[in-house]
């Protein structure tokens, strides 16, 4: 009888251990590189610099030296556009100018930053401040310093068009003000524009957090920026 009891106890111990082990393995683990709220980690200065750095230009060869030159008109038009909006207030841009900026910017080096703000406010949230600070350091790095950058604010689809347009403009202005005050970036090197909910990053999920973003674009125009 004692031998049978010991055997039963051993079996029960194994079963209990198996159940405990199974429960432990089934617990969710923290996602790698995640923040306290489960979102992806703040972007780093190096990541921003790599995203915004102009693509290296291919060196000319003897064969290319006699090839027809590319039409300079698009570059001239881009320069004229940038010159016309540098130093302008965000609210002063017309819908046509906003679309022209978007058209030029689509082929330029850019990065989307998921910068959040206080509710119904243009105040940068504390959890997003590291990303904004990384942006400031990146824009003053030797690789990027002196270029003209577009800082574009976007919202999700909640709310009316006029409300979201105003909110996106105020939030873009908030980012610019911080960069100018804290990192001494020339105000004329930062062109701020708001798009409201007109250019959703994820149209299939119009309320998704990914749509509430600030996009930074390197317009690659150091000559203009230095004037």
Automatic annotation (TrEMBL):
Domain spans labelled OmpA-like: 104-222
GO cellular component: cell outer membrane
This protein's UniProt keywords: Cell outer membrane, Membrane, Signal
SUPFAM superfamilies membership: OmpA-like
Protein name per the record: Membrane protein
Entries under InterPro entries matching the protein: Bact_OuterMem_StrucFunc, OMP_bac, OmpA-like, OMPA-like_CS, OmpA-like_sf
Signal sequence, start to end: 1-34
Domain of life according to the entry: Bacteria
Main subcellular localisation: membrane
UniProt cross-references to PANTHER family, sorted A to Z: LIPOPROTEIN YIAD-RELATED, STATOR ELEMENT OF FLAGELLAR MOTOR COMPLEX
UniProt subcellular location: Cell outer membrane
Entry's transmembrane regions: none
Entries under Gene3D superfamilies matching the protein: OmpA-like domain
């Amino acid at each position: 009888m004692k031998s049978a009891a010991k055997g039963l106890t051993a079996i029960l111990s194994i079963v209990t251990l198996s159940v405990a082990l199974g429960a432990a393995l089934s617990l969710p683990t923290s996602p790698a590189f995640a923040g306290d709220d489960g979102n992806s980690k703040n972007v780093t200065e190096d990541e921003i610099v790599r995203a915004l750095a102009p693509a290296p230009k291919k060196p000319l060869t003897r064969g290319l030296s006699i090839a027809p030159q590319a039409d300079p008109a698009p570059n001239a038009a881009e320069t004229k556009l940038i010159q016309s909006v540098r130093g302008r207030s965000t609210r002063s841009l017309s819908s046509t100018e906003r679309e022209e900026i978007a058209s030029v910017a689509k082929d330029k080096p850019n990065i989307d930053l998921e910068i959040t703000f206080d509710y119904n406010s243009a105040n940068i949230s504390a959890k997003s401040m590291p990303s904004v600070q990384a942006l400031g350091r990146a824009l003053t790095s030797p690789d990027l310093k002196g270029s003209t950058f577009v800082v574009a604010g976007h919202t999700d689809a909640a709310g009316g068009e006029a409300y979201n347009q105003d909110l996106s403009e105020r939030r873009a202005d908030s980012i610019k003000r911080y960069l100018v005050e804290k990192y001494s970036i020339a105000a004329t090197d930062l062109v701020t524009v708001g798009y409201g909910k007109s250019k959703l990053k994820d149209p299939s999920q119009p309320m998704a957090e990914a749509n509430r973003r600030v996009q930074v674009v390197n317009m690659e125009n150091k000559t203009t920026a230095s004037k």
